[in-house]
């Protein structure tokens, strides 16, 4: 990583959110997987971050100075791309979160393929490209993140950029069966091929991408060199690699053992009572399987009466995409189900679900991770899921159990978790029971193994491998070129992550 002269990160959101308040602007830290992952990388390597600070042209000025001040205190520069309210609606709520997000997570029936959204997506990606062209250094590494900005590389190429461009997709890549429903399936793949390196979370995602290339752009040549796939088109070579994202293990581990976190744990324990805690932490999203999780917990309470008045499910839901009507509807549905389950099982001194719709600071986050006997991570589909890894990193006494969906990217690389199918509420109910009744020896054995894997493959390992691949591209086609064809990638892949 030391070889990089200047690193520029580009993502839809900056790691801060600007909020207008009486008398000025408040700068709050942002939450989410991409921010948790990239902040320590930039803080360690230096460089700068280009993104949207969550405000619109219509919100007026006055935010530049507070943002610059924050840049100085967090150790890297930030440059803002400011959008109009109409752009935010069409690009963010529209194309990004009503087309790509559901489609790439396998929920094609939730997509709204409005052509207008695609036009605005292009316009906003152009705005990002303009901002990069005017503020990023000519030398150095440009690393674009995630599904909001797939077209940025292509727009930069249109502006004459010849520097290396890299892209990492934090969410899954869908099976060809799902992907090919996209009206802009050709354009999106062509845009991806404008980068020099495309990184994906799991080999399933990579295999899916190859299937899609094979079907939609059959003229490209695809071959394998070591653990990389190379795509050749228009006399260019594009590397495609698998880079499972990690967490900042040492930081979480240290923080979890700190006196501040111990103090928060004592307070939380007083507030929660003497019950075993099952923990869920998720952004508000239908992909996270929240409704299915609550129903599985209800199922567990029905089947295993010894859970009554001994165990609680503590669910933290981070507000997300509140401008998208579907997310507001999901929030109402969650409120209703929690109310129903609590109404049904509560006793005067015990309530089965503690549900917070809010964010907490890093100390409370670690205190919750440490306090919980088990983390219940049950997404229906997830690129990776950092909550699963952070939970283990905070288990300094190695006594927690991880219940993990086989449809999370994390399941492909974590041995020691109780793997479940999140749609099978009976199986999840049994896993919950197994987790709370597991003896200490087995807990420790499983957690020790999980922590070893997460410590070795932390977020710096991830970034180093990615940057290394970007700086040392494979330029030589091997003698015996091994073509990837449909025979080697047989069958669409919406299957669970392989172990
Ligand atoms: C995307 C992909 C992939 C949550 N609540 C608070 C808080 N968080 C932080 C957690 C964690 C992050 O948010 C959530 O990360 P996930 O990975 O679980 O999910 P997404 O946001 O959907 O992330 C995902 C990820 O990108 C990285 O590639 O793993 O699959 O969907 O880091 O700690 N942080 C604080 N307060 C909270 O209340 N401080």
Task: Give keywords.
9-stranded mixed beta sheet, alpha/beta, 6-stranded parallel beta sheet, 17 helices, globular, 18% strand, 499 residues, binds GDP-alpha-D-glucose
Notes on the protein architecture:
The strands form 3 sheets. This protein has a 9-stranded mixed sheet with strand order 5-4-1-6-7-8-11-10-9, with helices on both faces. The chain is globular. The longest helix has 21 residues, at about 115-135. The chain is α/β, with parallel strands linked by helices and about 500 residues long. It has 17 helices and 17 strands. GDP-alpha-D-glucose binds next to helix 1, strand 12, helix 13 and helix 14. GDP-alpha-D-glucose binds near residues 31, 170, 383 and 387.
Furnish the topology, listing elements before pairings.
Blueprint: E1 7-13, E2 16-21, E3 24-29, H1 33-45, E4 48-52, H2 64-74, E5 77-80, H3 85-104, H4 115-135, E6 141-145, H5 152-158, E7 165-168, H6 176-179, H7 185-192, E8 197-200, H8 203-216, E9 221-225, E10 228-233, E11 236-242, H9 249-256, H10 259-272, E12 276-283, H11 290-303, E13 311-318, H12 325-345, E14 353-357, H13 362-371, E15 374-377, H14 386-394, E16 401-405, E17 418-420, H15 425-437, H16 440-456, H17 459-471
Parallel strand pairs: 1-4, 1-6, 4-5, 6-7, 7-8, 8-11, 12-13, 12-15, 13-14, 15-16, 16-17
Antiparallel strand pairs: 2-3, 9-10, 10-11
The structure holds GDP-alpha-D-glucose.
């Amino acid at each position: 990583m030391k070889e990089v002269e200047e690193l520029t990160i580009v993502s839809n959101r900056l790691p801060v959110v600007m909020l207008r308040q009486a008398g000025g602007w408040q700068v709050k830290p942002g939450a989410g997987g991409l921010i948790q992952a990239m902040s320590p990388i930039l803080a360690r390597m230096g460089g700068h971050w280009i993104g949207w600070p969550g405000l619109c042209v219509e919100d007026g000025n006055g935010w530049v100075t507070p943002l610059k001040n924050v840049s100085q205190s967090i150790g890297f520069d930030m440059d803002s791309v400011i959008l109009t309210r109409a752009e935010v609606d069409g690009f963010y709520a529209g194309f990004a979160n009503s087309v790509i997000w559901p489609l790439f997570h396998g929920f094609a029936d939730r997509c709204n393929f409005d052509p207008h959204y695609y036009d605005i997506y292009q316009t906003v990606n152009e705005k990002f490209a303009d901002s990069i062209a005017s503020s990023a250094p000519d030398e150095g590494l440009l690393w674009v993140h995630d599904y909001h900005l797939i077209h940025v590389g292509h727009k930069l190429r249109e502006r004459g950029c010849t520097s290396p461009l890299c892209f990492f997709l934090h969410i899954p890549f869908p099976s060809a069966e799902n992907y090919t429903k996209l009206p802009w399936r050709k354009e999106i793949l062509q845009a991806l091929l404008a980068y020099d390196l495309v990184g994906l979370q799991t080999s399933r995602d990579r295999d899916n991408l190859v299937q899609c290339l094979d079907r939609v752009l059959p003229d490209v040549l695809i071959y394998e060199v070591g653990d990389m796939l190379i795509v050749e088109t228009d006399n260019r070579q594009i590397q495609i690699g698998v880079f499972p994202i990690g967490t900042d293990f040492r930081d979480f581990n240290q923080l979890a053992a700190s006196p501040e976190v111990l103090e928060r744990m004592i307070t939380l324990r007083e507030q929660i009572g003497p019950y075993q805690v099952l923990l869920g932490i998720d952004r508000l999203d239908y992909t996270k399987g929240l409704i299915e999780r609550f129903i599985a917990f209800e199922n567990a309470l029905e089947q295993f009466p010894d859970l009554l008045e001994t165990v609680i499910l503590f669910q933290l839901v981070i507000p997300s995409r509140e401008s998208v009507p579907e997310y507001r509807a999901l929030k109402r549905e969650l409120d209703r189900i929690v109310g129903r389950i609590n109404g049904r099982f509560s006793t005067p001194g015990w309530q089965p679900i503690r549900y917070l719709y809010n964010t907490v600071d890093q100390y409370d986050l670690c205190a919750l991770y440490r306090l919980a006997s088990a983390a219940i991570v049950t997404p229906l589909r997830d690129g990776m899921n950092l909550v699963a890894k952070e939970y283990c990193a905070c288990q300094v006494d190695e006594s927690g159990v991880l219940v993990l969906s086989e449809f999370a990217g994390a399941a492909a690389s974590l041995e020691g978790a109780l793997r479940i199918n999140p749609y099978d509420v009976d199986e999840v109910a049994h896993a919950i029971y197994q987790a709370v009744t597991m003896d200490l020896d087995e807990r420790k054995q499983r957690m020790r193994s999980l922590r070893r894997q997460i410590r070795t493959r932390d977020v710096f390992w991830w970034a180093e491998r990615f940057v290394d691949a970007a700086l040392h591209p494979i330029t030589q086609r091997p003698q015996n070129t091994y073509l990837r064809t449909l025979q080697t990638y047989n069958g669409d892949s919406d299957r669970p992550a392989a172990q």
